[in-house]
Amino acid sequence: MKRDYYVLQWKKLNRNMSALEHAITALNEAKKRDSNEYKRLAVKIMQIVGHPHLAYLWFAASKEEARQANNKPLERRVSRVVNAIRDAWQEVLPYTTNVIPDTFRFVPDVEDEEKFIYLPLYSFALRIPFQLEKPYISRDDVDFYLLDSPLRKEKIFKVPMVASTSWKGALRAALWQLGYEEDNEIIIRLLGNPRESDEGQAGRLHFYPTFFDKISLEVINPHSRETGVGERGPILMECVPRETTGILQILYVPFGRPDQNERERRAEVAGDLEILAEGVHAMLTTYGLGAKTSSGFGTVGDQLAGRGVFALRATLTDAEVPPVDVSLLPIEANHLEPKPEAVPQSTETSHVSKWVFTTLGELRQVAQRVAAQLQEGGVT
Predict the structure, then answer these.
(1) Which residue has the higher pLDDT, 111 or 239?
(2) Confidence of residue 326 (pLDDT cuts 50, 70, 90)
(3) Same structural domain for residues 13 and 153?
């Protein structure tokens, strides 16, 4: 199906060659005198070529073919088209980001207490609105693209994103940098076994994708470590620019042995929470996410871009406890059958506790306070 689409685009491009050459001539004339006209003509060229990446690569291949055949006039003509398509694409790129309708975001509202009554006791959710300090770079898997390093995007709306699997991998890498090996009991509990493991234990953490509303270009100039001289010249890469905001959301659902007692359960959740807060802080502020993190890309400031929220399916003494609507409690499926004598469950509750924070440092403090109360049994 993709092959048929690309063939159709190529045929359209062949039919529009005359219009494309006229638009390119006008674009080059407007480049120095009228920025608004230049932008309008760039949009027009994008409309004529239809699929800019396919058109660029096709003309680039034609240019190489003309060079090998030593056909200088054809090479110059095709080179002019290649440069114009690239320039036009760069001009319109910042305006190509779409907006995903809320209906299709599939990201839960952490502050919606009604949803938490259906989760096991001590489940918690974390919402962290952050702002990039350095551009975010990633790699997408596409057949045809103008650049060698396209930014990963959502498949339908073409919005820059951090996939849930990328968040999980970045957190695992950050925890490893902090000294937590892959066979650490808490790491396995949080993130599951490594892919090559035969045990196949799932982790308690569930990550949600992050979507961005901006896209830009970054120029990277690799240098030789020995001479300090540029090796291949500047490389153009797509990125999410600095100061762009996004939201990291994580859901934690505790599960363990059926015979696990309450004290052990609380101790595990407390340990998981503290390690998670430490890892998230290090991942965002120190080690970064995406590609080129060793060069400082993909890092986030300690100050959040909004109000962070930590919600726990339990009632703790120093938290904000929202009122409970009894009508929203789950209805038992066997309500028509005779019920056995109830067994007291003093720790089960439908309450949800909530904490807010404005920095990642405050998140770690909240995690430490909550963990201490869980271990001491300060839960109702």
Answers:
(1) 239
(2) very low
(3) no
Name the domain boundary from 41, 61, 95.
95
Q: Is residue 336 part of a domain?
A: no
Element (H, E) at 362: helix 360-376
Band (304; pLDDT cuts 50, 70, 90) = very high
The answer to whether the beta carbons of residues 141 and 163 sit under 8 Å apart is no
Structural domain of 45: 2-95
Residues 106 and 68 in one domain: no
On whether the CB atoms of residues 148 and 236 are closer than 8 A, the answer is no
Q: Quick check: 373 and 316 in contact, CB under 8 A?
A: yes
**DSSP per position, 70-131:** T-HHHHHHHHHHHHHHHHHHHHHGGG------GGGT----TT-HHHHTTSPTT-EEEEEEEE
| pTM exceeds 0.85 | no
Residues 155 and 228 grouped into a single domain: yes
Do 171 and 278 lie in one domain? The reply is yes
CA-CA distance, 257 to 132, in Å (whole number)? 40
Count of domains observed in the chain: 2
- Secondary element (H or E) of residue 53: helix 52-68
Closest CA to 124 of 250, 314, 248, 252: 252
Count the helix, strand and coil residues of the chain and give each as a percent rounded to the nearest 5: 40, 15, 40
With residue 366 as reference, give the H or E element that holds it.
helix 360-376
311 - beta bridge partners? Answer: 125, 354
pLDDT digits (tens, 9 = 90+) for 78-110: 888 888 888 888 888 888 888 887 777 677 788
Residue 335 counted as domain residue: no
